Amino acid sequence: MMRLSRVELRRLFSRRLVVLAMIGGLVVSALFLVGVWQSSQPMSAADLERAEAEYERQLADWEENGEEWVAQCLEDEAREAELTGTDVDFGCEQMEPQREWFIWESPPMEDSFPMVLAGQSYLLVALALLVGATFTAAEMSTGSISSWLTFEPRRLRVYASKVLATGLGVVPVAVLAVAILVTGGWVIARSFGLAGSMDGSAWSSLAAMALRILVLVVLAAMVGSALGVLLRHTAAVLGVVVGYVVVVETMFAGALGRFQPWLVARNIEGWVNHGTVYYVPECTTDSSGTMCDYVERSLSFGHSTAYVLISAAVVVVVGALVFRRRDAA
């Protein structure tokens, strides 16, 4: 089995599209640092001066008219509550201009970098799917798998070696991509004085997140290789994946409401971020019409873990069953 896997690894890295995809992943990961650098820069002296002037102007306006504005706001709030029969909060007590509304500061690395790393995870997952799919689909579509089976007729061993090779093959590039982003991000944050809060606990949390991303990328590559076997063409795999993302995750995600815990992207988010939240509409209808509020719901890390692992296992097992029985020609 290990001999077969080593052979498949060599064949994996001999494919030009696979190598180009991996290089592309590293290049794009490096480009993420451009966004990190831009978001880490403080306000320029000119922008700071304009913001201070605008804050002072609005504060003076508030000191002159604030009491009148609050009274009008409270009156409108009471009228709306009477009309709807529900509690209404217009935020009348928070109307006074605050300096932080005008003068922004770049967030520390501890707060900002997990979002950057989470964004990179989607890129790495997509590339891993592509690598896995193109590796197996090329052999299935050209029929070269038939020649390979004459040397090793035990189909499940061949299938397992291919799936394992794709999973192992993406590990080095995934580790390097994450390392480039984390190291570069730390250098940038330190140069702007934003890395001071990165203590041992923050680094441990970031390392755990990076490890979860690495596992996810391995699973994505294995799923991609299984889909390549099932659909036999890289274009077919990409069509199914893109179609699902566009139709289900983009067009109808908001309408699915309470079914969001069963969406792939939501559970990837829950896996990477060690849990996440989503929002569902809760509507009430009375004589004045229909009122809807969006209520926050939690998606636990345990749920996302089970979803990701079971989904990946199902696809890989189905691929094995189909490969075992399907005509290889």
What is the first-to-last residue Cα distance? 24 Å
Catalogue the unreliable spans: none
Mean pLDDT: 84
The beta-strand count equals 2
What is the number of helical segments per DSSP (H or I, 4+ residues)? 12
Report on the biggest sheet.
2 strands, antiparallel
Output the radius of gyration.
Answer: 26 Å
- How much helical structure, as a percent, in the residues? over 70%
The H/E string reads: HHHHHHHHHHHEEH
Structural class: mainly alpha
What strand line-up does the widest sheet have? 1-2
Task: Choose one word for the global shape.
Answer: globular
Transmembrane segments: 12-37, 122-151, 163-189, 209-230, 237-257, 304-323
Keywords: Coiled coil, Membrane, Transmembrane, Transmembrane helix
GO molecular function: ABC-type transporter activity
Coiled coil: 45-72
Write the topology of this structure:
Layout lengths: L1 H13 L1 H25 L4 H40 L24 H34 L1 H8 L3 H15 L1 H21 L8 H32 L2 H18 L1 H4 L7 H9 L3 E11 L2 E11 L1 H25 L4
Antiparallel strand pairs: 1-2
Helix pairs in contact: 1-6, 2-4, 2-7, 4-6, 4-7, 4-8, 6-8, 6-12, 7-8, 8-12, 11-12
Protein name: ABC transporter permease subunit
GO molecular function: ABC-type transporter activity
Keywords: Coiled coil, Membrane, Transmembrane, Transmembrane helix
